[in-house]
Amino acid sequence: MFPQMKFRVSGLDAKAKYILLLDIVAADDYRYKFHNSRWMVAGKADPEMPKRMYIHPDSPSTGEQWMQKVVSFHKLKLTNNISDKHGF
Question: In this protein, which residues make up the domain named T-box (predicted)?
Answer without folding.
Answer: 1-88
